[in-house]
Amino acid sequence: MKISIVVTQEEHFKFAQEICDTIESSALLRGTGIAKRTPEYIQKKMSNGDAMIALADGKFAGFCYIESWEHGKFVAHSGLIVHPDYRSLGLAKKIKSKVFDYSLKRYPDAKIFGITTGLAVMKINSDLGYKPVPFSELTTDPSFWAGCKTCTNFPILQSKENKMCLCTGMLYDPKEKQKTPPRHPFNEAVLSRLKKIKQALFLNKIIAFFV
Questions:
Q1: What is the CA angle 18-24-26, rounded to 5?
Q2: For the N-acetyltransferase domain, which residue ranges apply (predicted)?
Q3: How far is Cα 134 from Cα 121, in angstroms, rounded to an integer?
Q4: Whole-number Å distance between alpha carbons of 154 and 102
């Protein structure tokens, strides 16, 4: 089976609905919050050349798109997804790596960041040189945070004035000299424990609010 990862074009519009459905069903399966996407929004990213798609014999296998904020000062990779039929092949890491390299060429001066609750995505980001950071180091663009409105955890983000949530913020600064291996090696046990502590803290506050 040959899988190719390419920059999207209008010919890939036909996969937009399937991409949205796969992203949403994956989030529901994991029980995590997610910012919902529409086929129209995905198609816009495709036509602008701000997305990459993985194809296996002409079938949708994976996807990821790029968003820029504050006039290109910050760049984020969103919607990273692999179709269930092509998981456990290391495809997510390949897509992310391709999008990462593409972003460095397309937005050479931008800081690349992301927020996620997924340990697998954290591991991929860490391998690429991202480091965990507080939300204060990420974009302050209201339109970025508005994209979290459809996430089930949005009330938590609002209550913390966009400064904290169940997601972990991660940042890659191209101006910061990188080392191999990355300066900030991934520690799954530590990040998993941090995630559980966050969940417990927020849950206790919600319970206290209603008591």
A1: 100
A2: 11-151
A3: 17
A4: 30
The candidate with the shortest Cα–Cα distance to 51, out of 183, 41, 59, 202, is: 41
Reading the block at residue 148, the tokens are: 């979290």
Tell me the pairing of strands 168-172 and 74-82.
unpaired
Q: Please report which residue ranges of 2-106 form alpha helices under DSSP H.
A: 16-30, 39-47, 91-106
Whether omega before 185 lies within 30 degrees of 0, making that bond cis, reads no
* Cut 0.85: pTM above it: no
Residue 184 DSSP one-character state: S
- Of 44, 76, 72, 71, the closest CA to residue 144 belongs to 76
* C-beta of residue 170 within 8 angstroms of C-beta of residue 114: yes
List of residues 6+ apart from 197 with CB closer than 8 A: none
